[in-house]
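Researcher: Let's run the pair from yesterday's discussion. Sequence first, then tokens, for each.
Model: Starting with the first of the pair.
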Amino acid sequence: MAAVTAARPVRARRRRPSLWALFWLLAGALYFLVPLYSVAQFSLETGAHRYGFHWYAQIFSDPSFRSSFLLSLRLAVETVAISFVLMVPTVYWVHLRLPKLRPTMDMIAVLPFVVPPVALVVGLSGLFSALPSLLASSQILALMYVILALPFTYRSLDAGMRAIDVKTLTEASQSVGSPGWKTLLFVIVPNIRSAMLSAAFLTLAIVMGEYTISSLLLFNTFAVYIYYIGNTEAYQAAALAIISFVLTWGAMMGIFFVSRLAGGRESVQIGGTR
């Protein structure tokens, strides 16, 4: 009986949160939710003590809303695609062959935090001055957004690469005759899909909320539309604030659920075994 008792696992007791921690949690929730509730209530007002979705219907029926939203969404997809094409092979090669270059990559990845968007616009406009058709096209925004999203894309991919054994996976793939591009596409990418999805959601949030670059280049993106409505229409501006909030938090919750699902199911697969 003593042996059986000793073999039983000992469950760690969970510490109950202190009253002080609960107080700060409640204070933080109120600080965050009370302004949001006020904006939501204001966006629903249609008259004296009357509420409805009239202003939301006006926003969704506005052609400028649809065009600006679709433009930003297309730019987000293009930015994600360009970022992955450039960064996934780069991060993979650094982890596999050039691990000593990782500190340099970390420093390069934080440079967009240092360079102001205005300086970025002026610099790239001068760089592409010989290509006026590119400067007049919205694709120039996607190229600039790749730079803005670089810190988040690199950090997400780097964390995904650190979570797997890149060298062992590559050697196992090469041992069965797979070339380098097949190893990257069919072995490495499936093992970092959660990191790639996190980078995609973060990039989506960045592109949908970016204002400075698009306004300087005179493109009517979703953020520019929000700024214009905020200066002209009060109720529609409140409705747009709620809509943009839902979009941003939808992206953040997408990262959370993807991470939870990947944490429960994803594991490195080598030679058909887990």
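Model: Moving on to the second of the pair.
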Amino acid sequence: MPSARNVAPLEIEAIDKIDVLFVIDGSGSMREEQRALGEQFPRMARALASGDVDADGTVDFPPPGDVQFGVISSDMGVSGIQGIVQCEVGGDDGLLMPASRSRAAGCPAELPAFVRHHAGESDVDQVARDFACLATIGTDGCGFEQPLEAALKALWPAADGRVTFHGTTEASTHGHGDAANAGFSRAGAGTVPSLLVIVMIADEDDCSAADTSLFIPNPLPDDPLAMQAFNLRCFLNPDNLYPVARHQRGLRLLREGAEQLVMFAAITGVPPDRVDRAATSGVDYADAEARAEFYRELLDDPRMQERVEEDNAAQGGNLLPVCESADARAYPARRIVQVAQGFGENGAVQSICQQDFANTMTFVLQRIAHRMRNPD
């Protein structure tokens, strides 16, 4: 867990820049979820550019002069482990996804690593289309999803040695924020930083591994891993995973001295009725006790408890799903929810099983609008 430096808090009167990073699960179970959520990406681009959350012609927050959109996948590979299909050693490694990876019809062959809308200079509809292209990443990624680690590596500056990562070379153990992904996260040296919004989309919980030995596909007979179903390795070996405090703290320190300018929204495996409009409308997110009660009830819900579906012999056992819909089947995302909780009023949780993703995106936009209206 990175330690904080003695940085004086910034006084911020207004936010004029937003950087939105989508962290998308690109594993084989996400085809329908990507399609359904992808329909909402252009709407998000237009809403953030205009300040109009619900497209009713009324400005809900002061529109920023500059908005950037980037996409990474949850595929970090399985560093140091060989022989797992679709889990090449470093995966996508937290690198911003090029348009050449897009699976959407009609997308250009070449796009920048992230797209930018600058008020008065760019066409927001074109930006929205390009963003949707970047976000359609396909479903051939590693099944051991590590979205929290992917987000941190994508954004953490290589020059800051407080956080290091798995890698096969010295260079690959450092973050990409001021290297391969430079220019996306505008930390604002000498100026007001951008509002950094991380939106995580996953139908399984995070498996960010501190010790990648849990991924060994064919352990020796006397290795305890030999008795474990491959699908359950992350669930059965929690001590091999990074503590969620690493990601709670590391992501917030991307705006050190202005931590209120980092937001974390998760669209993931939680019961829809715990996070729909009826459930969230009465929650005062500015009140710490109200937030604590909301998360306590969510995490204590019996459906959020990780339980093994013992009769799934075809896969050697799996977890019971937390929710299912026409477009999704998801599993309890306890680690991801706990990270969102650590962001206080800057955290948001929605269900990937909700029937109407328009309402899901509206909730995320409303939380962003609140921070834009209250920058300090």
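Researcher: Give me one sentence on the second I can quote.
Model: Residues 288 and 344 are 7 Å apart (CA to CA).
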